[in-house]
Every structure is written in C-alpha cells, then in structure tokens.
Amino acid sequence: MNRPKMATEKGVPSNSRVMMLLGQLERMNGDIVRQAETARQVTAKILHLIQTQEKSGKEVMSKGSSGMEVILASLESTRDVQTILNILSILTELLTVGRGRRVGVFVSKGGTGILFHTLLSASKEMPPSEELMLQLHSLLAKVGPKDRKFGVAARLSGALNVTVNLIKQNLQNPKLLLPCLQVLRVYSTNSVNAISLGKNGVVELLFKVLAPYSKKNTSLLKVALDALGALLKSKTNARRAADGGYVPILLALYADWHRNDARHRHMLIRKGLLVCLRNITNIKLGRKAFVEADGMRVLYNSSTECLPVRTLDPLVNTSSLIMRKCFPKNRLPLPTIKSAFVFQLPHVPGTGPAGRTYSQGPGGRTDPQRCSKTSQKVDDVVDESDDNDEADTENDTENEEDEKDQQSPNDDIETDLNKLHPRKGPGRPYEELRVYERFFVELSEDFQGFNFESSKSSSNTSLSSPFSSSVAPVRSPPRPIIVPTAQAFSPKHTLSLPGLPKDPQLPPPASASSPPAPLTPLQLDNIHVSKDQEKTEDSHIPTTDRRDRTLSPLGRPPTEAQTIEKDLAHVLERVSLDALDGVLPLDADEAHIGVKQDDVSVTRQIQSPLLLGGLSARRSGGGGSNWSSDCGSEGPEDEAAEGAVLEVPDTALLLPLHDPDLYVEMVKGTLSVPQYAEVAYPDYFGHVAPTFREPLLERVYGVQRAKIFQDIERLIHPNDILDKVVYDLDIPSCPVIEDDGESLKFNSQFESGNLRKAVQVRKFEYDLVLNSDINSNHYHQWFYFEVSGMKVGTTYRFNIINCEKSNSQFNYGMQALMYSVQEAISGSPRWVRTGTDICYYKNHFARSSIAAGGLKGKSYYTLTFSINFKHKDDVCYFAYHYPYTYSTLKMHLSKLEALRTPQIYLRQDVLCETLGGNGCPLLTITAMPESNSNDHICQFRNRPLIFLSARVHPGETNASWVMKGTLEFLMGSSPLANSLRESYIFKIVPMLNPDGVINGNHRCSLSGEDLNRQWQSPNLELHPTIYHTKSLLQYLAHIQRAPLVFCDYHGHSRKKNVFMYGCSVKETVWQSNISATSSDLQEDLAYRALPKILSQIAPAFSMASCSFVVERSKESTARVVVWREIGVQRSYTMESTLCGCDQGKYKGLQIGTRELEEMGAQFCVALLRLKRLTGLRNHQHLLDLESDIIGSQAKVVSSCPTTYVLDEDEPSFLEAIDYSAESNDEDLEAENERAAEVREHPDLLEQLSDSDNHRE
Ligand SMILES: [Zn+2]
To answer: pLDDT-based confidence at 580, cuts 50/70/90?
Structure first.
C-alpha cells in the first residue's frame, strides 16, 4: 500500500499493525461477548506484537493514542477467561516498562477500578482460575503503590476479602501467595483497611507465613513482614498481636535470623521483624509483652553484635528505638517534683502556676513537709500512657535541624484586628502614675545650682559630680517603692519542721537548721563600696553584721561542718601548694574584705583558707580553723599557721568592672530563699574571656546511640549500678553526703546554683537532677554547680536527667561551660566551653502530667557530656551558660559609677523591691547639658527616651552579658558614646527578675510564674518589677514621652545568632489568612530599621531570623504590651543565642561573653544610626534642637553606608517564627496528625473508639 501514512497529531502512524488491531478490538467492543473467538485472536496478536516489538508498546502508550482506553474497555466487557488473560498479559507487558508514567496513564483511565471489577467477577467462578488470580494480583501489586485511592477502591469493591481468602487457601502455594501478599501489603497501608483486615484475622494469618531462618521463599517472608508491619500500626491490631502472644514469637524469629544470617544477606527480613516489634510496642500492652519476653536483653545483645558492622545501623537504630520505648519508666529520684525550696508568697493567687502548685498537695503552704512520702502519689505519678510524640527518629544522625517550632505557625498568629491595632490610651489615671515622676528627675531638671564651668575643667572623676549614685541635687532622693511582704525574712526550704506550728509568721525554731535573723534589704542607692578601705567604711552598708553573716556558719550543726571541712582541707591543701612560702598573719577581715593589694601587680595575694573558708560556711574550716573561728574562738596565729597566701590573678586589671572584694560585699546584701552564704569562685575571681576561638563542636557519629546503650545496660546489668546519692538538697541539713573518697563531691549552694541531687550511677558516671524553679514543679534547663574530688586520667560522664525541651542546641554544637579554680589560680580565670560526647535525648524518666501541662506519657530528656579533668583535686564549676549573678550586676553597677565623667549624667535608682526583698535597679544615663542655658536645658529634657530591660528570664544569662556591653558602651568615653548620650535619655532596668537569678531559677520569679507573660496585667504584689516597669512606661505615655525604642534582652536556646522579634500589623496579617486586604493597612516600616541596621553592623546579628509577627501566645510579653498599650512602634525582644552563629564573622563559633558584650555595644551604635533616620522621618519637631548633634554624628558614621533603602526590606515571610521556647509544639503536632487522620477517614474515629484508647 502506497497510501501516505495517516499520522496522529503526535506523529504516531495510525495504520501501524498494533493500532489496526486495536481499532478492530474497539469496533468489537459493543459485541465482544458474542465474538469471543475473534477477541481472543485479536488480543493474542496484540500481545504477540507487544512482546516482540518494543515500538508497538510505545505506539499504544503514546500521547494522543486511545490504545489504553480500548484495552480497558475490552477488559471490562469481556467474560472470556482467555481474552482476559490476554489483556492482562498485554497490560503487564505495557506497564512493566516506562517507569511510573505508564502506570500513571493506566490509573488515570480508571484501570484500577476495572481490575478490581474483574477480580470480583473472577472470584465468583468456582473454582476461580488460579492463572487469572495470579495475573490480576501481579498487576494490582504493580499498580497499587502508584494509585492513591487504591486502598479505598479495594475496600469499596470488596477486593480485600477476595485477596484474603486466596491467601488463606494458598498458604502452601508460594507462586500465588507472593502476588497476593504484595497486594495485601498495599491494602494495609490504608489505616481503615488495616483495622478491617485485622478484624478478619489477617494478623494471625500473616503469622502463619512467618518462618524461622531459611534460604527459601525469602521474598515471600519479606512481603509478609511488610504487610504485617503496616497492619500493626493500628493499635487494635497491635493489641491483637500482643494478646495473641506474638511478641515472643517475633523476638524468637528475630534472634533466629540474627544468629543464622551471618553474612547479612537478609537484613530486610530482620528489619521487617523489628518494624513489627516497633509497631506493637507503640502500645502499653505491647511494651509489657516485650519486656516480659526478655525483649530488652534479646535486642540489646543482638544490637551489640551488630554495632561493629556499619551496614547494620538500621537494625541497631530500630532496636535502640524499641528498647528506649520499652525501658520501664522511672520516677525521678525525688520526693516531690516541686522545687526543693518554697517561698511564702504574700498572697497566693487562686489560679496560675503558683496557685496550682500550692494546691497540689503536700510541700506547699498547707503542708511544708517537703519530704513527705505521700507527696509521691500526688505530684509525680509515672504515667504509662502512650506517648504519641513522633520526635524519636531511628536515625542517629539527627543533625538536621528539625525545628519543630516551625510547624503550624498559623495557629498562634493574632487574627483579631482589634487586638492588632495598638490601643494607646491613658489606661490609668494620672494620680496613680504621678508617683513615678520621681524616676524622671531629668525631665524637669533645671541645673540652676550647678557650676558647669568647674565641672568642665575637672577631669578627675573622683570629684563629686552633681549626682551621686542616686541623689539628684534638686530633689530629694527617690526612694524605692517598697512592696509590703508578708514577712521580713525569706523562709528556708521548710517553714517548719514536722510537728512544729505551721504558722509562717512564727520565727523558725532555734534549731541547727534555723536561718539567721532577717536582714534588712540593701538599698542600691546607698551603694558606694569601693576597694578603698576608707570608702568602705563610709558606705551605708551595714558591714559589721553582714560580715558576721558571711562568716557565720549558717544552718549547719558543727559536726557536719567539721566533716565537710575535713574534705575541703584536703582540697585546699592542694590548691595552695604553690604559695606556701608567703604566709602572712592577716586577720580574717583583711583576708577576705580588705586585701592589701599592689595596684601594679598582676596578681593579688589572698590567704587561701580564709578566702576559701571565710566566704562560706561550708568552707569555713577550710584551712583547719574551726567552723566558729569567726566568733573568736581561735586566735589569729592559729589561722595564720594554717593559712597560706595564694597568688591569684588580679582580674581587676583586665576586667574594669570586676572587683572580688566588692563582689563579696554585694553578696552580703543579696537575699536568697535558701539563704546562700557561699560564693562560687568564678563569680569571685571573674571571667576573662579567652582569646582563642571556640568552634561549634562537631558531633561524633553514633554518640547518641552509644549513650542510650549505656543507659539500657543499667537494666541489663543491674548489678553494675551503684545508685549512690552523693548530693541531695532534699536533706536540707546536709546535702553533701559523706563518702569514702570514691565519689565526686557536688555543691550548688551559692547564688544562681541549682543542682538538686547527684547520684553516682557507675564509678565515673553521675545522674544529676536540677531543681525546679521556686514555687513551681518544672522549668529545668539552667544549671550551675560545683564539682570537686575528681581523679585525673579518667573520663567522667554527667547526665542531667530532668531536662524538658524536646531538642537542644547541645545536639548542634553547643558545649557546656566549665571553670577550673586551678586554672584560674594559675592565670586563666575563665569559663571555657567544655565536654565531649555531648548529646541530648529523651530518657526513661517519666514526666508527671502535672508538670507537662496536662499531657500524659511524656518523658524527660537527658543532657549528657563527658569530661576529662586536667587537674587533680581541682574545684570545677559547670554551667549552662556564662553565669551572671545579681551580685555581679550590683558590682558592675557600682563600678560603673567610677566611669562617670562630669559630662555623663548617671543616676541609679531602686525601682522597687522584689518579693525576695532585693532591690530592682533602674538606671538613667544621658549626657549632662552643655550649660544651664534655656536652650541646653531644653535640649537635655527633650531627648528621646530609649527604654531597655533584660534578664526577665533568669536562665538567659547571655542577656545580662549583652546588657553589660550596652552599659559599658554607654558609660564609655568614645565620641560615639558621647553622641549617643547627647541624643537620648536611656532608662534601663538591667535585671527584671533578680529573685529568679539569685535562686537559680530558669524561667520564673518567686511567684512560680514567667514574668514575661504578666505584662498585660501585672500584679503589684506578685510581679512588682513588671508592675513598676510597666508603670514607668505608662507614665511616659501619659506625659507624651513614650520611648522611641523599647527593647527587652533575652537569650534563645534553640536558635543560633542574635535576632529580634518586633510587632507589625501588616506582617501579622500577611502571615495569617485574615481576609483584610493588606492594602487597607497603613503601616510605617520603621520597626524594621533598627534590626536592619544591626544586621549591617553586628556580625552576630541575623536579619533572616527576625520576625515581626504578633502571636497570641506572646500577647502578654513586654514586646507586645509595650507596642500595643504604650504605643511604641519600635518595641522589641532581642534574642541572643546561647549556642553560636551560623552566619557572619562568627560563623561556626560558639558565642562567648566578648561577642555578647560586643553585641550590646553595637546595639548602641545602631541606635545612633537610627537617630539619623528617625530625625528625618518621625521627629521633625526635634530637628531644630538636634541639628548640631546630627551634624556631629554624621562625621562619626561617615565611614559606614549612609543610605538605607527601607523599601527593600519588604517582609519576605520565609523566616521561621519561633514559638515560645516552653511550648509543647511537638505535642500539638501529634495531636494535629491524629486529627487530620480522623478527618481523612471519618469512619476511623468510630472504629478506633473500640480500640485501645480507652484502656491505655
Ligand atoms: Zn527569654
């Protein structure tokens, strides 16, 4: 035939042989039943063509061809078995090539449904054609995984039963069994099918297929295990298997395959068995069966044998996952999870965390018996519920940041437009706010009595400037606002002993454990302490009794102190070996307070026993002196004989704001709930930031697995476990437990310390338990403790076992900090990032639902790290981050005074007293006016205000280091600092939560509440610092002087870099799905300017991590309240990483105090740049007044980029939003997943209701 070929659109010849045959088949379709013989022949020919010529298949499957439709239509209409077989073979041939595309075409043309239809009709034949069933299932097995509706279609068509019956009838017929099992495997991935199949006995059926090790039929076994594994994801099926006694069978099979599969050819079968076990042990019954069948030992032993073979990692990881799940849950080794200390609140709110804590049975106000046995039943119940948190991965290499806080961000976005619009309003009557006028003396200052000339001529800072630390010349000094507390003293752990009256008003019994007499709170405005002895005497600090207090042994009977001092004497002998030749007969006071020191010398001499002993009760006898030596029972010569003078680095030369003696003075005025009398060496000596780099620690492969296996060994080899308590705060009289010298000694009874218990688990391994925040039963993250009695040359493992967050930067390169006293004495007084084999993982200690926000089945997490101590008999300190105590702050503030020049206006007020009786400092820093001319005074008073605060969260010590950088910069003598002071009035509350800091809390104040969730309606009694800080801002708003910038410094535990959270209506609206069109919203982009500037000048700062979304969960934070209620557009939270940076100059490095302080300084520089912008944009009315200053600034910043294209900062919304670090995001995720599953399969809920849920 010479006719030109007819071509389809796609160029396929329509007259090809196969297409002609298909055409014939198509014409027959209406009557295919009667033309059975022809249909058989035609389909046979097509099959032959496709089998022999590759192009025929291509033609049928080509785009534009209707071949597939014709084939499917024929399959649907024919009844002839041979024709069906031919067509199935054609389809098999066609779908075998072309990867997934051809299957996709098949599915899209409804092929799956037609196959099920054919299957159903064929199953009605008696007996069904085996060949046909084989072909159909082979095809279904091929198609199923590519068809999303396969499971539903199978169930609706009734195909499930056909397949199941075939399996039942063909258990001994591997040829047919294999494709049936393959199809069953696909059916089972649908959760509704899984339940239905389980009801039909398929779980039991599949166990009939499983067999011990054999080289035969391994693919059959593999498929059966896959199907079984899928079925066992359903809790109903899992219970069926557990009830049916299949757990021991699976374990036996696993052991058998593990033993015999020596060359690891059948890893998939072994993995399949483990997956079945993994899924069964998702339910409590399964875990019980697993443990009873000795599963821990079986998997532990097999895994240990697999460990050396890297390719077997999947087996080890899955085994490890199962073992962790089945590890019997333990309670924390504590009498109660409530804090070891109770603070008596002035009144207990009915609701809120503190209220709940109090009402949770013993330990609280109503029953102060902390160690009451009954409390175990009340507050810390091991809950064996299923933890559906899927956070556990089998993968040990979990270094991918699985930021759980990124999921479902929209849930938390504020969508109420009324709430999004700042509601600036008076709120409170002026009469109420008027009292705060006293904190703003500068706004009405007229400087009339002040001699500017003499001030200018004098460069000597020691000359008195018009303002002493707090006294303004014109007005009477502001007095702290005293919030009345119920009692003057802070109760120690227990207010009364068992059997004693419980009235908190009663003084504590005069027993050995009685706290000393209450101390009058130190008012910060009276602090004038300096190293100069004369000044010290002039100061208002009642030194005598404070000294007494320091030297008195507190709350400890002599016998105990003596036993402890014996240990310490040993330690201290070693510490002072180097300096034995310089014995000086100093008296006690001189030794620790008035050390004569040589200003040029880089070392200072201290009499070590007195330093070490005089500072604390525990150390009171360090040099061999009696614990009551301060009472004069021993002569000075005794002390001198025992004492040794130690040369220690004089950090004062390197740390201008540090002074050990002053620190001790400050400690005396710091009131802690446990009434700490000791001083930690690092806080005393100070921290000189190292000059070497501290890179993020690279994670070693398999470290988590290795640690978990060591944990599991506790169960496998219980006899190796010591379980020896070596430190226990719950024994208030004697937390340090005496021992034979075979254990480390722990201590954390000093400011910001918070170790509650240490248990020696193995010879060189310790479990450590952190104390809860006071008046709370959780919040464990911050730690600070002392270790001594170490041996050199061994590796110690420390496990902090009651961490709460689901992940930590400790998994991503962060190391803990260590401070060695030996190193300090030998010239390196510093905190260094330390520790190897660091990892953070979920452990087997159950978290009571009371402490887990009502969520059941939660566990704690372990932070583990290993240490090799360099020095024998060292005293080392470990901390979560660089400590920064309240006493340190007071010392720094006192030393800042010395930096004041006549040009600097610095005022230090006490804003209020905290619940614990400590002063909350408020600083005012600006420049003195040039003269008392009207113009200068006017300029002075009209400077915009910058309001800064920090450390509302005590565990975020990095915020204090940033604040230190800011303060030092502000008090500096640089031209930049000068301009800055001339531009703004700074109002700074450097520590919003002194009590939390002092008492070693992580998150809360003494009320047991997160103060950064109280800004909407702070309570005067319970949240005084927040109440008064907010009042200051309200006052400013009232007098139309709302700050230009508000910024609260924080630390972030889950992210790297430094970044800011701000508030933007527009960005919030865009981020959410509020229907309001964003074009309706007028919003200045000014809120982006400061972070943008910071990203340009501060290497640690990352714009990409910033977020300007208003979240509902944050509506009572400082940032949102100051923005919404005070109307400050530039209201921020500045978050500094606790870990390190992954961008900029510090990329790959852990963050140190140097970088943090630099950040604080750069924040100031950024404010100067902001000044330029706002001067042009928002503060036209101030331009005249400030033009000269702007001029001077232009010079200063001229080397930097001067144009800011703010429009380019249109929000990208690619940024991750961080949700409250304390939120239970992962739990929400699990909930959402479940909800989604139910939505998808409405029948699931019903079916599940008969499942395990109500019994678990
Ligand atoms: Zn914070």
So the answer is: very low
Report, in angstroms and rounded to the nearest whole number, the Rg of the chain calculated over CA atoms: 37
Residue 386's pLDDT band (cuts 50, 70, 90): low
Distance (angstroms) between ligand 1 centre and the Cα of 505 equals: 35
The average pLDDT across 1126-1136 equals 95
Residue type, 105: V
642-651: per-residue pLDDT in tens? 445 566 667 7
Q: How far apart are CA 652 and CA 601, in angstroms?
A: 11
Q: Ligand 1 centre from 342 Cα, in Å?
A: 23
Report in angstroms the alpha-carbon separations of 1008 from 235, 355, 436, 775, 861: 39, 9, 27, 5, 22
pLDDT digits (tens, 9 = 90+) for 236-270: 999 999 999 999 999 999 999 999 999 999 999 99
Return the DSSP state at 604. E
pLDDT at position 26: 87
pLDDT at 617 over 70: no
Residue 1011 CA to ligand 1 center (angstroms) comes to: 10
Average model confidence (pLDDT) for the chain? 75
What DSSP string describes 438-468?
A: GGGGGGT---TT--HHHHHH---TTSPPS--
* Mean pLDDT on 984-1004: 96
Residue 902 DSSP code: T
What letter represents residue 385's amino acid? S
Query: Strands 745-747 and 831-834, how do they pair?
Result: unpaired
Is-contact 1128 1122, C-beta < 8 A?
Answer: yes
Query: Chain-centre distance of CA 655, in angstroms?
Result: 32
List pLDDT tens digits, range 110-132.
999 999 999 999 998 878 889 99
* Residue 179 or 1192, more confident: 179
For the stretch 875-889, pLDDT in tens is 999 999 999 999 999
Residues having C-beta closer than 5 Å to ion ligand 1: 953, 956, 1050
Helices (H), 232-306: 235-243, 246-260, 267-280, 284-292, 295-306
Q: How far apart are CA 405 and CA 419, in angstroms?
A: 24
Check if the beta carbon of residue 620 is closer than 8 Å to that of residue 553. Answer: yes
Beta bridge partners of 818: 832, 878
Question: At 23, is the secondary structure helix, strand, or coil?
Answer: helix
Between the CA of 923 and the centroid of ligand 1 the distance, in Å, is: 21
Q: Distance between terminal CA atoms of the chain? A: 78
Write out pLDDT tens, residues 527-553: 232 333 333 333 332 333 333 332 222
Find, among 23, 117, 31, the residue nearest to 69 by Cα: 23
Q: How far is CA 929 from the centre of its chain?
A: 46
Pick the catalytic residue from 445, 786, 1135, 1157.
Answer: 1135
Q: With contact defined as beta carbons under 8 Å apart, do 810 and 830 qualify? A: no
Strand segments, DSSP code E, in 593-731 are 603-607, 645-649, 724-728
**Structural tokens at position 173:** 């017929």
Cβ-based neighbours of 970, under 8 Å, separated by 6 or more: 925, 977, 980, 981, 986, 1164
Strand partners, 1133: 1048, 1061
3-state secondary structure of 1007: coil
Confidence tier at 1175 by pLDDT (50, 70, 90): low
The alpha carbon of 1219 and the centre of ligand 1 are apart by a number of angstroms equal to: 11
* pLDDT for 1119: 94
The Cα-based distances of 601 to 410, 605, 612, 647, 657 in angstroms read 61, 10, 22, 10, 18
Q: How many angstroms is it from 1160 CA to the middle of ligand 1?
A: 16
Instruction: Note whether 630 and 593 are within 8 A (CB).
Output: no
Q: Which two tokens stand for residue 675?
A: 């009434």
* Ligand 1 centroid, distance to 519 Cα (angstroms): 31
| Count, residues in the chain | 1256
Q: Is 1135 a catalytic residue?
A: yes
CA 833 to ligand 1 center in whole angstroms: 22
